[in-house]
Amino acid sequence: MLTLPIKPEIQSQIAFAATLLKQGKLVAIPTETVYGLAADASQPKAIHQIFMAKGRPSNHPLIVHLADVAQIWDWGKSLSQETIEDIKQLAAHFWPGPLTIVIKKADWVPSIITGDQDTVAIRIPNHPLTLELLKQMPYGLVAPSANRFGRISPTLAAHVLKELGNKVDYILEGGPCAIGLESTILNLSGDQPTPSIAILRPGMISAEQIALVLNKPILNAPKQNNALTPIRAPGLLNSHYAPKTPFYRITENALSTEALISKLNTIFPDSKIALISHHSLSNISNLKNSLVSYHALSSDPAYFSQQIYATLHHLDALGFDFIFCHLDQKIIHSAEWLSLLDRLQKATLGCIESHQLYHFKLPLYHQDNQHA
Fold first, then answer.
1. Cα dihedral 190→196→202→205 (10° resolution)
2. What pTM, to 2 d.p., does this model score?
């Protein structure tokens, strides 16, 4: 990873963040995926404050962030030589980067980090400020996404401030997140009924990429409660990453964006509607005098992932009655879209066809009844 020298004023901010963390405070940190809400991994009382600030269930495990692969061996227990070699190979190819591994935990690892499980999740993030900060934290940091539990992940410092306010003691400003989607989680703990290694949560590092590095089969993320997921991991709940505004996916491939906008105007003449898609409008006049606010994101999954959470934060703040997402089904069923579809599935209230919109009644879909 090519890094530029960190300016003295930024170094002082990093040092201040480290001081607060060592005092048991909470600091929001930038990563290449999303902003995390960090606590010193050696302080259970500070870690407990993460759960309180987020409203996160106490049995939901956290990811440990480290500065160097050499630190991992202190966290693991009874790792086989094969697992050690796998970790070294993965580290050489993907770290620092958006890959989290799950291994058997050492006896000393606090249960508050692992959700009372015998496994621990670890990664090395790819952000120069946070890597510099981690060098000053001997035991590393635990850092789930810096938002209220179940809500949209933050990809800007402003999102953190909006979500958590004074529940976070300091925000280390690191600019927009480069990837904008949570890390791939890979199970290397052996807690699965087959010799294959399984992805627990999809991310921008795919099963195919990992298989090429390890030269062994990698199973794609199974559904929650599947026999292949005997352990709990972040982001596996059916409802997650969700805006407060009712959010649905529309699946019809033959329906053009212009036709969908026209239909939305007809069905909801008195409502504020936001539509997300990746189609360019052939006739911009379709939006004239329309209550539909159209937001075109990239058809490239890498750019779409950078934009989607920030777009949802923006739309959620504008008081829309509904948000709809209409994506090209031919494009999104490719492997590159797997992680994005996973997030959209969890963030939306359902997958519908346009004819079902006629049955929507606003009082039944009030914001107060949305994702917990």
1. 110
2. 0.91
Q: How confident is the model at residue 159 (pLDDT cuts 50, 70, 90)?
A: very high
Is residue 128 reached through a cis peptide bond, with omega within 30 degrees of 0 on the bond before it? Answer: no
- Evaluate the CA torsion angle 52, 121, 152, 250 in order and state its sign: negative
Query: Given its phi and psi angles, is residue 90 left (phi above 0), alpha (psi -120 to 50 degrees) or beta?
Result: alpha
DSSP 172: -
The reply to whether 81 falls in a domain is: yes
Domain carrying residue 20: 8-219
Q: In this model, does residue 225 exceed pLDDT 80?
A: no
> What order of strands is seen across the sheet that includes strand 184-187?
170-171, 27-29, 36-40, 141-142, 63-65, 119-123, 99-104, 184-187, 197-201, 218-219
3-state secondary structure 291-304: CEEEEECCCCHHHH
pLDDT at 339 over 50: yes
Q: Is residue 199 domain-shared with residue 287, that is, in the same domain?
A: no
Which CATH number goes with the domain that contains 38? 3.90.870.10
Alpha-carbon gap, residue 234 to 61, rounded angstroms: 6
Taking every pair of Cα atoms in the chain, the longest distance, rounded to a whole number of angstroms, is: 66
**34 φ, ψ (degrees, to nearest 5):** -140, 170
Q: Is the separation of the CB atoms in 24 and 34 below 8 Å?
A: no
Low-confidence winner among 245-249, 278-282, 285-289, 320-324 (lowest mean pLDDT): 285-289
Measured between alpha carbons, how far is 348 from 241 in angstroms, rounded to an integer? Answer: 9
Residues 6+ apart with CB under 8 A from 111: none
202 within 8 A of 339, measured Cβ to Cβ: yes
Residues 179, 284, single domain; the answer is: no
